[in-house]
Amino acid sequence: MSFIRIAFTPPVPADREAERICQLLDSGVDLVHLRHPGISEEEAAEILSGIPREYLGRITLHDHFRLAERHPVGGIHLNRRNPEEPEGFAPMAGRIRRSRSCHTFEEVTSSRGFDYVTLSPVFDSISKHGYRAAFDYDDLKAFLAGCPVGVIALGGVTPAHESRLIGLGFRGAAMLGHYWA
User: Fold this and answer.
1) Strands 59-61 and 31-34: what pairing?
2) Model pLDDT, residue 57
3) pTM exceeds cut of 0.85
4) CA distances, 23 to each of 2, 50, 114, 153, 181 (Å)
5) Less CB within 10 Å around the terminal CB: N or C of the chain?
6) Taking a C-beta distance cutoff of 8 angstroms, is the pair 4, 172 a contact?
C-alpha cells in the first residue's frame, strides 16, 4: 500500500471550495475529507454538486452521511459528532471506505474493520492553536509496527514530515492547515 495524502477541508467552507477541492486532487492529494461541522445537509450537497463525478469517489464525508445515497462519494468518516454509521447503512458499506478519528492507541486498536483511521495530534497543530503533539515517537513506532489497521497521521502534518511519518510506520498523512491556512 502506498503512502496516502489526505486533505481535510477547514471547518467553514472556503470560497469556490468545489474548485479548490478539484485543484487539490489534481495536484497529488489522494483523498479529500469534507469536514464542515456547522453546515446544513443542503450546503454540503451544494458543495458536492460542484465537484465533477469523476472526483466524487475521492471525497469522504464527516457529516450528513445520507448524502452518500445521492452522490457517489468514496467514504464516510466517523468522529465525535457522528460516532456511528447511520441506520440502514449496511447496503453502502461494501462500496465506500469507512474511516474513523482516533486520539489514543486504544481507540485505534478498537477500530478493526475500518479502511483506515486518523490519529492526532502527531505534531503541534497548524490550524488549532494550543493543540499540541500527544505522542512519544518511540511509542508511536512500536505501536504502528503491530497495528491491525492503517493509521493516517493528523495534527500539524506538512509534506516536510512525510519521510519521518513513513519511518514511524504511518500509512499516510492528513493535512488541514497546510492546504487551507
Assistant:
1) parallel
2) 95
3) yes
4) 21, 13, 28, 22, 16
5) N
6) yes
